[in-house]
Write a structure and sequence with these properties.
Beta-barrel_TonB, mainly beta, 879 residues, transmembrane, ion transport
């Protein structure tokens, strides 16, 4: 009933505003409308469009659209301008009562300045006039980069360290050196200006799990730092906004087929057009994909798809009502650390395990059935992988109330059923001697190891390890609404708004340990003590339900914000923003009895001796309130139409994450919001063949939480301060048939106030250490060559400096490079492409094993490498 009231309230507000008096117009007056496009076919928001003879002018909306009504019949000159583009003029002739569509093409004068920002801003503006660090990519640029996942696309953005080694989903992003347990903890992923889910760092529910790139995407905009805390929650590191395609009068379609050397079958389709000319438009598309995965699991690793779309009704001028929807049903394998060895500092695979294509995830133990405390059986299917089923529906409404005031409202309701199953390494690799003495407290000669499937004895020199099947079931929902009023009070543009979000995440965990031989596609092992006759495994399962969890987290956000853009002179612009968060978080957690129950149903077997259960224990209920201000101020000075500079200070925060609430539910007094203070100095320059966007930044963070789940089921539950100073640079150059894109980041993230006592009573002092999993230098270099007008080749080179697995800086992840390449050919309305990633099969380590820091086999360690070499082939047709 509460949700129904929310829907009705929003729709009632739209209804009232729709019937506000509109400007009158003559019955036989003409109308002209259309889109402004760049020379890549991407729409240009924020472009100035005017009709010379009438004095009328407007600015294109976020979809690059413009419209003029109430125009008398006659001949006119329509003009389109934008910073970084050549002025475009076109003669048009209007008849009485005619509705004429005119699309305007702007030719870019530079590679950089034609990019326009609408994310993290109250009004569309070009990069030259904005005072934020931003990277944008249109649909064509995204396709040219051929990303294998959302995370792979984000790797091209300076300042963002992205770990894309987990596969298509579940990857990690670290913004400007902010260390975390992973996910998207300090960055918000948005879809058309609203979050894909309010919190992008819930346990095992990384934000990219709920978003897929396909042909419905029109543009990606990524803001780093700056104004992000004013326009999004828990996002001091930045906002990544994916903007969807919308319809137009002309019917258009695009179909694409992709295959690969790892068994991919993928079809994409997008259709758009008008249901009623000039008034009602649609865009609908989606994909279906099945493949075996780059790493060999022995089953179909990725399978599913999505359908999404929108319907837009346009009123006079720029007013519109848009309804959008999405259904995603997709499952993906999630890859985790694998055993490797170091040979004089060089990382190599161990015998029987391919470091580029091997994984502990195996068809040989894909189905789990184990008895439970209190009776019954728990079952899980590894082949289901990380499997979100998402249904979302929302709407946008924009209305110009007067010449000075514009109202906009958008809402979205999202329901997610996430069934998560993945293999996590948890102990080992051990030699058989090491396992006997370390785990079973006996001698190796007393134990017999045999394969479950055929009873064959294990090679005495083979390594063994635990491969846990972690099952997590999450039921999630989120209703978000954002409305704002914009006031054009020349020279001030003011936006004031109210953001409401109500979300909930219920989760259940059941984790079980397999014992396996260390190899590609590993097999289950049984272990028997010959002296006592006791079995230490049951069908290869060494520990039944060693961890069980039942918990809930809820968020209720009521936030107000304001943003002002002040044009002091033609060259000097000031920006100031303010946000007040009045948020409430609540929930409950179990009080599980860890390793406390003996099921007593397996005779002479230890697999059921130490079961963890939540049954029979009360729950701990908790509540945490947040009252925080975020603010920012900036100034941008335009030296010329080719050069500008800005300075910005911002203060934002991040609320405690889900794991922190669970760990400290009995006493939340130790929890604090992470405070983030940033100072930025930006410089932008562009000529007809070269552009540069450089950002010097300093970040000071207070009370950063570290909450990795350890191999015993506990959390790190530590807090520290972090300071980082860095430089982000993005350059583009073009000469004749050659284009070059080069981005790099150099930074120095270090811990401060990071001392304390470990669980075993030992002390630690990490002050001055480098933040974990953050390289001090990384870069991307991408040259492209137009071999002919229709044939283009590219090479993508990435380099990541060394980094550290943990806070103690003892375990080093070596520097690595990755090379990709591709070729695409266009023939009329067809596009053929071949794209390759990791051409030289580099073993690049993105993380160690954050759940374990030691290994009984001294030359063997656990880490997660980037995916091995892969080729994808595609053909697309526009119609």
């Amino acid at each position: 009933m509460k949700k129904l009231h929310q829907y009705l309230g929003t729709l009632f507000l739209m209804f009232c505003l729709f019937f506000l008096p509109n400007k009158g117009f003559a019955q036989n007056a003409a109308k002209v409308f259309g889109k402004v496009l760049d020379d890549s076919g991407v729409t240009v928001p924020g472009a100035n469009v005017s009709i010379k003879e009438t004095g009328k002018s407007t600015v294109t909306n976020e979809n690059g659209e413009y419209a003029f009504s109430n125009i008398e019949a006659g001949t006119y000159t329509i003009i389109a301008t934008n910073v970084g583009y050549k002025t475009f003029e076109k003669k048009i002739a209007l008849k009485e009562g005619e509705s004429l569509e005119v699309n305007l093409l702007l030719e870019g004068e530079s590679q950089s300045l034609k990019e326009v920002v609408v994310t993290g801003s109250s009004a569309p503006r070009s990069k030259l006039e904005s005072s934020v660090a931003i990277t944008t990519m249109g649909a064509k640029a995204i396709e040219d980069r051929a990303p294998s996942s959302t995370a792979a696309l984000l790797q091209t953005i300076p300042g963002f360290v992205v770990e894309a080694s987990g596969g298509e989903i579940g990857n990690n992003l670290f913004a400007r050196g902010i260390p975390s347990a992973g996910a998207y903890e300090y960055v918000q992923i948005q879809e058309d200006g609203l979050p894909v889910f309010e919190d992008g760092a819930l346990q095992f529910a990384n934000a990219d799990t709920f978003y897929r790139l396909d042909e419905t995407v029109n543009k990606m905009e990524a803001v780093r730092g700056g104004s992000a805390s004013i326009f999004a929650n828990n996002a001091p590191g930045g906002i990544i906004n994916f903007i969807s395609k919308t319809g137009q009068n002309e019917f258009k379609g695009r179909a694409k087929f992709t295959t690969s050397d790892y068994g991919m079958f993928r079809t994409d389709l997008n259709l758009s057009g008008a249901l009623i000319q000039d008034k009602l438009f649609f865009n609908v598309g989606g994909f279906y994909r099945a493949d075996n995965g780059v790493r060999n699991t022995g089953f179909t690793a990725n399978k599913g798809g999505q359908i999404k779309g929108n319907i837009t009704y346009k009123f006079d001028d720029d007013d519109y009502l848009r309804v959008n929807f999405k259904h995603l049903d997709d499952r993906n394998a999630f890859y985790l650390p694998i055993p490797l060895k170091s040979n004089n500092g060089k990382v190599e695979g161990i015998p029987g395990f391919n470091p580029n294509y091997g994984t502990l995830t195996s068809v040989n133990f894909s189905h789990l059935n184990v008895p439970q405390y209190g009776g019954g059986t728990f079952s899980a299917d590894l082949e289901d992988g990380s499997h979100p089923i998402i249904n979302s529906i929302g709407a946008e409404f924009k209305k110009k109330i007067s010449d000075k005031v514009t109202f906009k409202n958008s809402f979205k309701n999202t329901n997610i059923d996430l069934n998560y199953n993945a293999i996590f390494p948890n102990g080992g690799p051990w030699t058989q001697d090491g396992y006997a003495t370390t785990v079973q407290n006996t001698t190796a000669s007393n134990l017999t190891y045999s394969y479950v499937d055929n009873g064959q004895k294990l090679d005495p020199n083979a390594l063994i390890m635990r491969a846990d099947l972690w099952h997590i079931d999450k039921k999630m929902n989120n209703f978000a609404n954002n409305f704002s009023f914009s006031f054009d009070l020349d020279p001030v543009k003011l936006t004031a708004g109210y953001y409401y979000s109500n979300w909930k995440s219920n989760q259940y965990w059941n984790w079980n340990s397999y014992l396996v031989g260390v190899s590609d596609n590993p097999r289950l092992l049984n272990v028997k003590d010959n002296t006592t006759g006791v079995d230490h495994t049951w069908n290869g399962i060494e520990r039944i339900t060693w961890l069980e969890r039942d918990a809930q987290t809820k968020g209720l956000l009521n936030d107000i914000y304001a943003d002002a853009e002040i044009k002091a002179t033609d060259n000097l612009t000031f920006n100031a923003g303010l946000r007040y968060n009045k948020d409430k978080y609540s929930g409950y957690r179990d009080n599980a009895r860890f390793f406390a129950e003996n099921l007593g149903i397996l005779d002479n077997n230890t697999a059921d001796d130490a079961v963890t259960t939540v049954k029979g224990n009360p729950y701990t209920y908790w509540r945490y309130d947040v009252s925080e201000w975020s603010y920012t101020a900036a100034g941008n000075y335009k030296f010329s139409d080719k050069m500008a500079s800005y300075v910005r200070y911002s203060h934002g925060f991040r609320s405690p994450i889900e794991e922190s609430f669970y760990d400290n539910a009995a006493d939340l007094s130790k929890l604090q919001n992470t405070e983030v203070n940033q100072f930025e100095l930006g410089y932008k320059y562009a000529s007809s063949f070269f552009s540069v966007n450089a950002n010097l930044f300093h970040m000071g963070l207070k009370n950063v939480a570290f909450t990795d789940i350890l191999s015993d089921g506990s959390s790190e539950n530590k807090f520290a301060d972090v300071n980082n100073i860095g430089l982000e640079v993005e350059t583009n150059a073009r000469y004749s048939i050659v284009k070059l894109n080069f981005t790099f980041t150099v930074q120095k993230p270090e811990y401060d106030n990071f001392t304390g006592t470990n669980a075993d009573g030992s002390t630690f002092d990490f002050n001055g250490n480098t933040a974990r999993r953050i390289p001090k230098f990384f870069c991307n270099l991408r040259p492209e060559v137009d071999i002919t007008k229709d044939l283009t080749a590219y090479v993508q080179f990435s380099y990541y400096d060394k980094k550290f697995t943990n806070q103690d800086n003892r375990q080093v992840l070596p520097a690595y490079k990755e090379v990709g390449a591709g070729l695409n050919y266009t023939y009329n309305n067809l596009r053929f492409a071949v794209d390759a990633s990791n051409l030289f099969n580099e073993i690049g380590l993105t993380e160690g094993d954050p759940r374990q820091t030691t290994s009984a086999a001294s030359d063997v360690f656990m880490a997660r490498p980037i995916l091995g070499r892969a080729f994808r082939f595609s053909v697309a047709i526009n119609f």
